[in-house]
């Protein structure tokens, strides 16, 4: 962080916190943000309700993004809605729409401790506490997210999914693949399967749309926060359930629920909040959808690298998972 950005953030935090003086003592870029940048800030605060110290995260745009991700003002609104609904999220504090301050819009939230790295969470049984309890808690958290329903004036920027959330996803992915320079026949097969087998529209809820291992944080005692709301929108609640349970998001773990344990524990936690009993046969469709959606995102991520928009080994490697996803899609749809 350069001095100009540091000074601008000190003045912004001082003003928003109602403090006499703010001095940033530590600032470091956190790992794991391929779409957004997250800066950890530790600041001394003189005067006001936040004295004497604040530990914060400043969230802003990465050099390039993925189509369909929310801007920071929209993500801040989503975070506030989730926080008000009782979802375990970092407390959202302040939004800055003035891009001239540090060169782009940003928002500030409280820092929450814990580990999110998926490969670590899946393999280290000491993290998250009792795994059955963790999965029940995650199911309950998802249920609270799904308690947020349209219409909402504070979330008016979220588009309606129309007559079919499932078919809207199919149409979006097909538009991208039709315009892309490389053919992906296995993905086209999967899209056709999704089209033919699309469920009827049911209730509409706020879907997180990236609710998976890697996007929640845990410590030795349990869950500490649900992260990354930049893809959230109105949709079918089973979309999130299928995403969490999809094989592509298990990171080598044996548990069918996020790689960390049994579906039944996750389902039980969800039912404890929503009263809805989840059935595997209803969720299979959305697991296929998860594989298709992740495959398209992987193609988009690779394109960011190949086009020269953002040179990144991580983005380049993401493109190499597409064949594996295509194989899984074929296997999941072969006998159905």
From TrEMBL:
<feature type="domain" description="Aminoglycoside phosphotransferase">
    <location>
        <begin position="27"/>
        <end position="271"/>
    </location>
</feature>
<dbReference type="InterPro" id="IPR002575">
    <property type="entry name" value="Aminoglycoside_PTrfase"/>
</dbReference>
<dbReference type="InterPro" id="IPR041726">
    <property type="entry name" value="ACAD10_11_N"/>
</dbReference>
<dbReference type="InterPro" id="IPR051678">
    <property type="entry name" value="AGP_Transferase"/>
</dbReference>
<dbReference type="Pfam" id="PF01636">
    <property type="entry name" value="APH"/>
</dbReference>
<keyword id="KW-0808">Transferase</keyword>
<dbReference type="GO" id="GO:0016301">
    <property type="term" value="F:kinase activity"/>
</dbReference>
<keyword id="KW-0418">Kinase</keyword>
<dbReference type="InterPro" id="IPR011009">
    <property type="entry name" value="Kinase-like_dom_sf"/>
</dbReference>
<protein>
    <submittedName>
        <fullName>Predicted kinase, aminoglycoside phosphotransferase (APT) family</fullName>
    </submittedName>
</protein>
């Amino acid at each position: 962080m350069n001095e100009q950005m540091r000074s601008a953030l000190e003045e912004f935090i001082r003003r928003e916190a109602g403090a006499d003086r703010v001095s940033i003592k530590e600032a470091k870029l956190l790992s794991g943000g391929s779409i957004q940048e997250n800066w950890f800030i530790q600041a001394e605060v003189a005067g006001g309700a936040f004295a004497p110290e604040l530990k914060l995260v400043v969230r802003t745009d990465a050099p390039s993004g993925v189509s369909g991700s929310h801007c920071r003002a929209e993500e801040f609104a989503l975070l506030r809605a989730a926080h008000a609904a009782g979802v375990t999220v970092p407390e959202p504090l302040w939004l800055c729409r003035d891009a001239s301050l540090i060169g782009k819009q940003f928002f500030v939230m409280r820092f929450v401790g814990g580990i999110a790295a998926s490969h670590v969470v899946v393999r280290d049984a000491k993290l998250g506490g009792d795994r059955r309890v963790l999965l029940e808690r995650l199911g309950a958290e998802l249920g609270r997210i799904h308690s947020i329903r349209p219409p909402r004036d504070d979330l008016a920027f979220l588009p309606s999914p129309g007559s079919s959330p499932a078919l809207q996803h199919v149409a979006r992915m097909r538009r991208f693949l039709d315009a892309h320079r490389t053919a992906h026949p296995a993905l086209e097969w999967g899209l056709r399967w999704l089209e033919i087998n699309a469920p009827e529209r049911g209730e509409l809820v706020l879907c997180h749309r990236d609710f998976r291992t890697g996007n929640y944080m845990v410590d030795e005692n349990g869950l500490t926060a649900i992260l990354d709301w930049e893809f959230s929108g109105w949709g079918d609640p089973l979309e999130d359930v299928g995403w969490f349970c999809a094989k592509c998001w298990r990171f080598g773990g044996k548990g069918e629920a996020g790689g960390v344990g049994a579906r039944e524990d996750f389902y039980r936690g969800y039912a404890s909040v929503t009263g809805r009993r989840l059935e595997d046969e209803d969720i299979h469709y959305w697991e296929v959808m998860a594989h298709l959606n992740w495959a398209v995102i992987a193609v988009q991520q690779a394109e960011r690298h190949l086009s020269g928009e953002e040179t990144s080994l991580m983005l380049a490697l993401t493109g190499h998972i597409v064949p594996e996803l295509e194989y899984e899609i074929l296997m999941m749809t072969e006998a159905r």
